[in-house]
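Chapter review. Work through the record for Rod shape-determining protein MreD before attempting the end-of-chapter questions.
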Amino acid sequence: MNSLISGHTVRFISLVFLQVLVLNHINFLGYLNPYLYVLFVALYPIKNNRALFLILSFLLGLLIDIFSDSGGIHAAATLTIAYARPIILKFSFGTAYDHQTVKFNTIEFGALLVYFFILILVHHFVLFSLEIFNIKSILLILQETLFSSIFTIILAIIITIIFSRGR
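Structure tokens for Rod shape-determining protein MreD:
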């Protein structure tokens, strides 16, 4: 139990520092920015306490907001995907989720890709909708959502593969 808690604490802190110190300073092609901190929400164990998970997800987004001076948009987007996660898990993994047998290091790549894609797409759509907050700019919102999501998904898959091989 202690190794589980310490592992999630290390992941939480590492992702915050990685996002704030490195990834927030990447503006590929002027507007693409990876948001890898969503990996904490994506890889959090399914069977753990849901209320604690929602609180931790909110705190994660809030910390990113504090360091990025972004006024709560990361907290809102992160809490949204944390709340919607059971629906996304059920859609991505089907009966494996129903029977609580989903283990992220043993599932097939296609299902993991669908899961990451939906989770990250929802996060980025909420994030950019709140950041831009103008219905006239819906094409810009969709463009930033799509391209930043692709960038984030590629990095998330690479990070997940690298760190799951050690287990």
